[in-house]
Amino acid sequence: MAMKIRLARGGSKKRPFYRVVAADSRMARDGRFIEKLGTYNPLLPKDSEERVKLDMERVQYWLGEGAQPTDRVSRFLEAAGVLEKKERANMKKAIPGKKAQERAEEKAAKAADAANAPAEEAPAEEAAAAEE
What we know:
Blueprint: E1 3-12, E2 15-24, E3 35-40, E4 52-54, H1 56-64, E5 68-69, H2 71-80, H3 98-131
Parallel strand pairs: 1-5
Antiparallel strand pairs: 1-2, 2-3, 3-4
């Protein structure tokens, strides 16, 4: 049986509350589970001790039995020191696309030209005024 340690959602609409459970991976997210291992309340502040509660002995048991934690649960276990930190891919989603980068470069070039152009034209205007 493929076991997972995952979150099962509870709580009302817009007020999430999760149970950390050991469940067969084929069961529904909020469906049948083998054992409740803890809770997670995302509405509490991040520094609150009540935000994530886990029964570490049972978590260790299920990990020993071959249960695979989901990504979010593995982050909880890494924070608790049970698992070693994984290297995660930084997808660089914040970097703009090629076209946006080209537009930004063109805008910067125009701004640089505009900054340089008045400095070059000013002496020419002064020379023209001096000739008159």
